[in-house]
Design goal:
mainly alpha; 2 helices
Amino acid sequence: MSLWMKIGAALLLGAMVVAMLPAARHWLEHGPRGSAAEWLNAAFVLGLVVLFVLLLMLAV
């Protein structure tokens, strides 16, 4: 990819991030709050994913 394509892609990506910031801020302020049980469930699932990836890495 040429230098100008990389610069253009970076500019478009930056513009997209800047355009999405107000919506993301609104979602964070007015979104639903998770309970302790929901956070525990999310941590458990992420832990299982980490263990599965470790298992895959050790199997090679």
